[in-house]
Amino acid sequence: xxxxxxxxxxxxxxxxxxxxxxxxxxxxxxxxxxxxxxxxxxxxxxxxxxxxxxxxxxxxxxxxxxxxxxxxxxxxxxxxxxxxxxxxxxxxxxxxxxxxxxxxxxxxxxxxxxxxxxxxxxxxxxxxxxxxxxxxxxxxxxxxxxxxxxxxxxxxxxxxxxxxxxxxxxxxxxxxxxxxxxxxxxxxxxxxxxxxxxxxxxxxxxxxxxxxxxxxxxxxxxxxxxxxxxxxxxxxxxxxxxxxxxxxxxxxxxxxxxxxxxxxxxxxxxxxxxxxxxxxxxxxxxxxxxxxxxxxxxxxxxxxxxxxxxxxxxxxxxxxxxxxxxxxxxxxxxxxxxxxxxxxxxxxxxxxxxxxxxxxxxxxxxxxxxxxxxxxxxxxxxxxxxx
Length: 387
What we know:
By secondary structure, this protein is an alpha/beta fold. It contains eight helices and 18 strands. Strands 11-12-14-13-15-16-17-18 form an eight-stranded mixed beta sheet, sandwiched between helices.
């Protein structure tokens, strides 16, 4: 995504931004209409046209007449901002691996901190915390850089073997690995690492904030490229002496549920256990708006729909797979998992199944702790206590 300036007759005057990075949001103009404020993945510490870091976001002031550009953020990290109505101040919320949350008022004209509103303390300062490492791997195309997050238990003994849970989303418009607090890891990731698991996540091709070429590779073949890249992550795990490759699990929700099941069925010898929540099973039965955007119409792409239909793969299940679904899910309707269970019965395979009555696509509210306790117990039974 980049910006171009046109006149009102539709003639392009010039390109305003360029580089291997993404314009994420347009925040607005100043009162004179001379400067445009944009949120991008172009880092503040390199030339504006260089390749950016998808892990970070920054706000730039762009003069649309002379092309002069200035980064308005003073701190390294991921920024959430609001521009004042007069475009003279920026309310800047910063998060980074070393900043839980800072909120500052920035003066736009001279790019200086006017006032610090909040600087949050580390909420985990009194806890023995896991180690979080972010790095890069090469995708299955042998050239594209992928970012991963590896969380290891506190005081890990590298002479021992530990089970691994691969947390996956893998679909469009989502990014799991960031330069924010804890590098985007959730509380459950940290909890499970403290229980003795290695937690691993990689943003495969098709995920967000990497540009059109990176994201559009999944068109008409949902699951194929994503799984190939996820398996490059598994190859990396194999290279670590403290990873027990006999105890690899995978977990994801929605598109991540689709990916979890697909990995369990396609690489049945690799994954011992999986938990798939709200999972898409057959793209024929998903929202047309989303499905046809990425897969085209079924009549135009019959092979793509066939190869991504998990109902056709149920006979390959070998590991322990728990399916979780809300019975009022309006996004991935209940039909998806019910048809999958029926296909498993027909194929003579035996997944586990759990329903949350009264819940839509995500289990939220007072039942959410029950959800994560259920997931945790399942992995403990299959990966930790089955040693």
